[in-house]
Specification:
heterodimer; A: alpha/beta; Rossmann fold; Alpha-Beta Plaits; six-stranded mixed β-sheet; four-stranded antiparallel β-sheet; 14 strands; 30% strand; elongated; B: mainly alpha; 76% helix
């Protein structure tokens, strides 16, 4: 059975004046995935999210959510009825009580889960009579998450959801996101700079750089798709190049030459051994390595 | 819920404006006996300009009756100017301001941008109608207190005239609020536009004369053409505001 994609964008461009925020973005997020959207500051993560929610009109290209066009006003309304969003700034109405904001938000979602709202109010230790002005950034983040998680949405779009949270709260939020995805089959797209957090819960990764997706796939597949080959020499590592097309990047640090390559590394290992190193190790890669190398290489 | 939010966003402006207008209207009503007594003993001084003297005598004559006093001192003068400022105040500040409090939260809700703007403008109009009618009816209610009569229907006619005219400035403020991300520039520019209209358009054919109910006072008919043009222009400005917000990136 073909994989069903909740989010699909094709060759999406967005320019602000002469600045290209998105430059041919192709993103696909499968149903039920927890997808981490990674990228450096200004890479296009937030613009991507805003295009999906109809907050920004792309200059060209196609973007759809639930098979509905995100660029058409009517379809965008239907998308937003089925998707919940937490913005990077945790931008909520000022001076409103937590309880009033919960009631306000509930009125727009027919599938609103009052039980979940109560559950998260208790879990996040949010007082219903506290106003949003009284809340710390971390507590505002929790309130924004509570509102999003209680909508009964099929898709959660979270822009930097962990920003402003302490480590204990981050752990709590990560657990709740996974729980939500597990019990309701909710698809989650979240952007983050915290690679360790992404690696902890995401099963799908999309890395965006300069407005384009440079890596997109299941995290396990990505990990399996890359290897680090570490060569240690007696003296300074040679300034060399590899003929194999599997090589993604090379890095020399003193006596160590580090090669990031795609899986099927036998030809790279053979080339490496021909350099007569003292040792050759083939190591698995972390998400951080994939991120830094792919973004760095693309630059 | 959108109506409730629009009300919460504007309620303090509205309540302060209502309190101010009611205090001024009631004060104006209750000071009528003092003014009447003063005018009764007043002799129009001889002035060389006969036209000016005639106008002055006419003003004095108007003040001798409660109806003339209410119209000339309140409905035709202070009220249109005050209501214009209140309309600008109520219309300023869009609920969908880039970088504003909760704008992205609002935009993420399954609500069209046109509905946000329409609800805000509708709430502003409802509040403006109360600001127009309540002080007007206060004159009718307080007339017996000073031993006079003032028909509620006449008070309503003046109130509706002022409301219809002021709706133009509310619409302008709503539109300008889609161009600027703060409250103050739409407010200021709307007041400047009102001042310009007052200075450019001849008074005897102008919007402010229609808002003041001049034709109703003299002939018992409202200045329908001017008022309908104002309402149509207000509708056009709110429509333009919704269209502009629909195209905007946030």
């Amino acid at each position: 059975m073909a994989e069903e994609f909740i989010i699909e964008t094709s060759d999406v461009h967005k320019s602000y004046g002469g600045v290209h925020a998105l430059a041919g973005l192709d993103l696909r997020v499968p149903r039920g995935a927890i997808c981490g959207l990674l990228g450096k500051n200004g890479a296009g993560k937030t613009t991507t999210i805003k295009v999906l929610l109809g907050m920004v009109q792309p200059t060209s290209g196609r973007a759809s959510v639930f098979g509905l066009s995100a660029t058409q006003a009517k379809a965008s309304l239907d998308i937003r009825a089925r998707a919940a969003f937490v913005s990077e700034d945790k931008d909520l109405y000022a001076g409103v009580t937590v309880g009033a904001l919960v009631d306000f938000t509930a009125a727009f979602y027919p599938k609103w889960r009052a039980d979940r709202a109560s559950e998260y109010l208790a879990a996040f230790e949010l007082r219903a009579n506290a106003t949003t002005r009284e809340l710390s950034r971390g507590m505002r983040t929790k309130l924004a998450l509570l509102l999003a998680l209680s909508t009964g949405a099929e898709l959660l779009i979270l822009d930097e959801p962990m920003s402003g949270l302490d480590p204990a709260a981050i752990e709590q939020v990560l657990k709740i996101i996974v729980q939500q995805a597990g019990r309701d089959g909710t698809t989650v797209l979240f952007s983050s700079h915290q690679l360790a957090d992404v690696e902890q819960i995401a099963d799908h990764i999309a890395i965006v750089d300069r407005g384009r997706i440079v890596v997109d796939g299941a995290l396990d597949d990505l990990r399996a798709a890359y290897r680090r080959i570490q060569l240690v020499f007696d003296n300074a590592a040679p300034d060399t190049k590899f003929a194999s097309s599997s090589v993604v990047s090379l890095r020399r640090e003193g006596r160590v030459l580090s090669v990031l390559c795609r899986a099927g590394e036998a030809d790279v290992v053979a080339e490496a051994r021909a350099l007569n190193p003292k040792g050759v190790d083939v190591l698995p890669v972390t998400l951080k390595e994939i991120f830094l190398e792919t973004v760095g290489v693309e630059n | 819920m959108l109506w409730h939010k629009a009300w919460v966003d504007t309620r303090w402006r509205f309540l302060l404006a209502l309190a101010l207008l009611l205090v001024l209207a009631c004060g104006s009503s209750l000071t009528f006996p003092s003014v009447r007594d003063f005018v009764a003993a007043f002799e129009v001084p001889a002035v060389p300009d006969e036209e000016a003297a005639a106008a002055f005598r006419e003003s004095i004559e108007l003040i001798r009756t409660f109806r003339g006093y209410a119209w000339s001192q309140w409905f035709a003068q202070s009220f249109p100017a005050l209501l214009t400022i209140m309309a600008a105040l109520l219309g300023s500040g869009s609920p969908l301001v880039k970088g504003g409090s909760g704008a992205l939260f609002s935009l993420a809700l399954p609500v069209s941008r046109a509905r946000w703007i329409g609800t805000r403008a509708g709430t502003g109009l409802a509040e403006l109608s109360v600001l127009a009618l309540a002080p007007s009816l206060a004159f009718a209610a307080l007339a017996p207190v000073v031993g006079e009569q003032f028909a509620a229907t006449e008070a309503m006619a003046y109130g509706l005239s002022a409301f219809a005219g002021a709706s133009l400035f509310l619409g302008l403020a709503v539109f300008l609020s889609t161009l600027f991300n703060d409250v103050w520039r739409p407010l200021l520019l709307t007041c400047v536009a009102a001042l310009a209209i007052g200075m450019i358009v001849p008074y005897d054919h102008g919007l402010f004369q229609a808002m003041g109910g001049s034709s109703y006072f003299s002939s018992g008919t409202l200045a329908w053409p001017e008022l309908l043009v104002a309402v149509a222009a207000a509708s056009g400005l709110v429509y333009a505001a919704a269209a502009r917000v629909a195209r905007r990136d946030f």
